[in-house]
Amino acid sequence: MAQLFDRIALIGIGLIGSSIARDVKQLGLAREVVVSTRSPETLKRAEELELGTSYKLSAADAVEGADLVIVSVPVGASEAVAKQIAPHLKPGAIVTDVGSTKASVIAQMAPHMPKTVHFIPGHPLAGTEKSGPDAGFAGLFHGRWCIFTPLPGTDADALAKLKAFWEALGSKIDEMDPEHHDKVLAIVSHLPHIIAYNIVGTADDLETVTQSEVIKYSASGFRDFTRLAASDPTMWRDVCLHNKDAILEMLARFSEDLAYLQRAIRWGEGDKLFELFTRTRDVRRSIIEAGQDVDVPDFGRHSLDKKV
Ligand SMILES: NC(=O)C1=CN([C@@H]2O[C@H](COP(=O)(O)OP(=O)(O)OC[C@H]3O[C@@H](n4cnc5c(N)ncnc54)[C@H](O)[C@@H]3O)[C@@H](O)[C@H]2O)C=CC1
Ligand SMILES: O=C(O)C(=O)Cc1ccc(O)cc1
């Protein structure tokens, strides 16, 4: 595949940053890939994995001369990173991120971005419960959505170039305004994780069921929750704190609907239960028909290896 950028700087080299690095290397999308993270151990590991062409502890040093800067850090670290890199960005550079929340990332980063760069927030809807540079893999983004939430007046050529980059990684592209993104993601991604953290926490707290019984008898439904509940605590703390309003709005709706379900069970209203369970089964069927049913262990693994 053709080289799209001369120098890419990756700020943060965990699951997402390292998956991007692996794809960029396999596909030859850049001449140079400068990897940066604030922890010396993680940087050393990135070097051992040969994820880039050079390695910097300082994000400021890493972005010097870069045409594309991808910030892949927990959303709560966005402002700190923006402040560090801003004075060192090359005029004309594209700066993007991969954060799971968008309004907060824009509020944290946009005020620090020089007028000479193109700041285009993004979010690949692909990941796993794992974190760190060893957890990434080539092909993670293949067949998955990448949503951009461009600011008004965004340069069309810069946006097209960034879209071409994500398309090269196999992503399907969409655009939304940041507030809408945050509401949609609150229900389809953030609430499922919060519910998983909660149910696993509840099971862990039970006095009448021992922890060994939870482990021994965990049915596949509970196991699915434990996978989500094993997701990175820093990342998900930040998502909760930085998409507070949308998450609280969706949690309020969720609690109301749960009370309805609770009442139907209490009063033996089987028809109500049956109606809901039938409706939700249809949702699952629609997802499968839309080709969105990619199980996590296979996330993208089928893709780039075959192509390259
Ligand atoms: N894990 C997932 O499934 C997905 C995560 N995201 C978003 O991607 C971003 C990164 O997530 P992951 O790669 O999963 O996390 P991760 O925990 O695997 O990696 C985070 C990286 O950021 C670095 N870092 C943390 N604070 C930093 C700072 N202040 N300055 C420089 N580097 C710093 C860490 O050393 C590490 O290299 C987050 O904003 C998350 O919301 C988006 C889609 C999916
Ligand atoms: O592991 C899973 O099931 C996920 O849902 C991964 C994920 C986590 C956060 C995102 O912003 C996008 C995708």
TrEMBL record:
Determine the domain of life of the protein's source. Answer: Bacteria
Which InterPro entries does the entry link to? Answer: 6-PGluconate_DH-like_C_sf, NAD(P)-bd_dom_sf, PDH_C, PDH_N, Preph/Arog_dehydrog, Prephen_DH
The reaction(s) this protein catalyses: prephenate + NAD(+) = 3-(4-hydroxyphenyl)pyruvate + CO2 + NADH
GO biological process, alphabetically ordered: tyrosine biosynthetic process
Pathway(s) of this molecule: Amino-acid biosynthesis; L-tyrosine biosynthesis; (4-hydroxyphenyl)pyruvate from prephenate (NAD(+) route): step 1/1
* One Pfam family it belongs to: PDH_N
Give yes or no: UniProt keyword Zinc-finger. Answer: no
Please state what the protein is called.
prephenate dehydrogenase
**Underlying gene:** tyrC
